[in-house]
Design a protein that fits this description.
- It holds the Pfam family DUF6148.
- InterPro entries: DUF6148.
- The protein is mainly alpha-helical and 73 residues long.
- It has one domain.
- The chain is 55% helix and 11% strand.
- It is built from 2 helices and 2 strands.
- A hairpin with a 2-residue loop joins strand 1 and strand 2.
- Helix 1 packs antiparallel against helix 2.
- The chain is elongated.
Length: 73
């Protein structure tokens, strides 16, 4: 199943939204319990990944390595 440009853009936006939320607050405490939000480094990694996917899909470039003009020996 191939990912569409719209799906990639949606994923990218979701990770950008997550980055904004994490940048505002990393964790919070209620009494003795603490909740930590997602790791900012992981969010950045996913933003980079989805940005590459959006760029690739928007440009119309094929996936993977494309060989052209190969002459058999």
């Amino acid at each position: 199943m191939a990912i569409t440009l719209e799906q990639a853009q949606s994923q990218l936006q979701a990770w950008l939204d997550a980055s904004m939320k994490v940048s505002q607050k990393q964790s919070y405490r209620i009494g003795t319990r603490q909740l930590n939000y997602a790791d900012a480094a992981e969010i950045t990694k996913m933003i980079d990944y989805w940005q590459l996917q959006v760029d690739r899909l928007a440009s119309g470039r094929p996936r993977g390595i494309v060989l052209r003009g190969i002459t058999p020996l």
